[in-house]
Task: inverse folding
């Protein structure tokens, strides 16, 4: 079955059922209120009859209080009651009929009415042909005698009104059924038309028209669906752009990598060919061999950095509790010789802290950051390491007083093969992969970090580590 007909039949049936249930409830509620009103009137009428009866009997001398005086007393009472439509009956303690204002052969059996123990009153509904009657009875005590006073009311009217309401409502429901089916058909057509248009837009998007968007007119669920579709289309378009950009970055990475290999290889091949074909002096030979050695070391460093990048992306790290002080001290030792060559001063002030991570990867991070600080600080510069614990977090800063960076350079520092100062970086044997590696390793360890730098003033790299208990990587 098509969605159009599903909506059509569902709405039609639900609306008709709702109107039918509501109308029936309203008619029944009206009937119950009428019935309650009639019951209250019957009780009030009986109470008035009972009060007058007891007052009249109590006014008589005890000698005259016998069953023979009851009809006379009752007749005088009934003449003073306003409602002449009710019948009144009086029974003695043996439930023998003493008086009746109207004769109802079918209703003179008081034993059928069950009296409430608290109120000493009760009622019953009885029918006589097409007529319905309410029988209301109360127990009355005068002196030492017990009487039962009963009044009978014809309540056929409220039942006839209910039947009349049902007849009228049946006719109204037939008219409503016609109107509802027409309205639901029109509304269903409007709803499914919007869905059909959205389906058409979806097919166009599937066929490659990524610029097409659905109309978001209105504030209903269809408009929300159209908005969701547009959001999805925007997200997919963004992802496509990201993939395109990623592909371009990979192309740039390959081109940069080829360039980084080409420059030292060209020099190595050139100097090696010179040593092979040309007779050189001892000094020239040493210079060529030295250049070949340095360029070879640069290629070695490049290969190691690339290997670390690949490993950091693909390996499954086994995290365990580690001493931060131990990791930093290991990195300090690895970079000590090159710092001493440039007479770089070194200051450290950081308490120990227990964190979770992979030892070799974190040592690689600290080594790269200290080596970058050494390159930036230059001859006679200063490198400082400071750390402080804040609850279950630890802030570690590596600072230098070197050349610093512009803000636009900070945003690109983690790009592969990006170099702030290409000549200095190549002279130091770098390839522009160190900060890329650091960024990926810190992301693996869920470490938040930022770079603050001022040109000609220096650079600060701040890293926030989670403690062993609060670290997600150990969970």
Result:
């Amino acid at each position: 079955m098509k969605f159009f007909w599903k909506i059509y039949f569902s709405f039609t049936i639900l609306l008709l059922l709702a109107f039918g249930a509501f109308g029936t409830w309203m008619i029944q509620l009206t009937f119950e209120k009428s019935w309650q009103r009639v019951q209250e009137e019957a009780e009030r009428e009986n109470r008035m009859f009972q009060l007058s009866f007891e007052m009249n009997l109590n006014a008589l001398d005890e000698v005259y209080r016998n069953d023979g005086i009851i009809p006379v007393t009752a007749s005088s009472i009934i003449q003073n009651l306003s409602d002449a439509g009710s019948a009144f009956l009086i029974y003695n303690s043996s439930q023998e009929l003493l008086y009746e204002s109207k004769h109802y052969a079918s209703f003179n059996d008081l034993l059928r009415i069950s009296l409430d123990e608290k109120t000493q009153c009760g009622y019953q509904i009885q029918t006589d042909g097409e007529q319905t009657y309410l029988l209301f009875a109360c127990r009355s005590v005068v002196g030492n005698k017990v009487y039962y006073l009963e009044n009978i009311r014809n309540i056929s009217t409220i039942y006839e009104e209910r039947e009349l309401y049902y007849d009228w409502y049946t006719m109204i429901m037939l008219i409503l059924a016609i109107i509802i089916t027409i309205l639901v058909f029109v509304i269903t057509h409007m709803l499914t038309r919007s869905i059909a248009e959205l389906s058409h837009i979806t097919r166009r998007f599937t066929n490659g028209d990524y610029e097409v968007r659905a109309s978001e007119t209105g504030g209903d669920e269809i408009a929300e669906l159209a908005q969701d579709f547009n959001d999805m289309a925007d997200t997919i378009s963004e992802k496509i752009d990201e993939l395109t950009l990623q592909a371009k970055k990979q192309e740039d990475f390959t081109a940069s990598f080829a360039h980084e290999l080409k420059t030292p290889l060209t020099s190595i091949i050139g100097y090696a060919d010179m040593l092979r074909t040309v007779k050189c002096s001892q000094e020239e030979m040493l210079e060529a061999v030295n250049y070949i050695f340095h360029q070879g070391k640069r290629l070695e460093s490049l290969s190691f950095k690339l290997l670390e990048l690949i490993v950091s992306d693909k390996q499954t790290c086994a995290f365990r509790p580690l001493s931060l002080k131990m990791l930093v001290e290991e990195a300090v030792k690895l970079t000590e010789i090159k710092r001493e060559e440039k007479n770089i001063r070194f200051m450290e002030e950081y308490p120990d802290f227990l964190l979770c991570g992979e030892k070799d990867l974190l040592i690689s991070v600290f080594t790269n950051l200290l080596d970058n600080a050494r390159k930036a600080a230059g001859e006679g510069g200063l490198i400082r390491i400071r750390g402080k614990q804040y609850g279950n977090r630890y802030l570690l800063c590596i600072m230098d007083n070197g050349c610093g960076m512009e803000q636009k350079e900070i945003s690109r520092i983690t790009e592969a093969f990006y170099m702030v100062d290409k000549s200095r970086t190549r002279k130091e044997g770098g390839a522009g992969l160190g900060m890329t590696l650091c960024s990926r390793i810190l992301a693996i360890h869920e470490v938040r970090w930022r770079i603050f730098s001022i040109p000609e003033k220096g650079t600060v790299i701040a890293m926030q580590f989670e403690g062993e208990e609060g670290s997600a990587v150990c969970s």
Q: What stands out?
A: Confidence is low (pLDDT under 50) at residues 422-431. The chain has eleven helices and twelve strands. The radius of gyration is 51 Å.
